[in-house]
Design brief:
75 residues; alpha+beta; Pemi-like Protein 1, Chain: D; 36% helix
């Protein structure tokens, strides 16, 4: 893994009174996240929260669907 592939810490965020959080500018730039973009939220209880751009999640579902169809055809 190259140095640029290593996880980065971008600081901390604060949850607002309405449950909102501001994604640090460096992260928004890295992932090209713009106002009105949609993110899918995943969480594993008491462990971590993940935000995935909706378009990437759609590509992931397409890939999983193709793989599952191949397995279904073999059964």
């Amino acid at each position: 893994m190259s140095k640029s592939d290593m996880p980065k810490v971008f600081g901390t965020v604060t949850i607002g009174s309405r449950g909102q959080v501001v994604i640090p500018a460096g992260v928004r730039k890295m992932f090209s996240i713009k106002p009105s973009d949609k993110l899918v939220v995943f969480a594993k209880k008491n462990e971590h929260i993940m935000l995935i751009p909706l378009e990437e999640f759609g590509r992931f579902l397409d890939h999983v669907t193709k793989i599952s169809a191949k397995f279904k055809n073999k059964i």
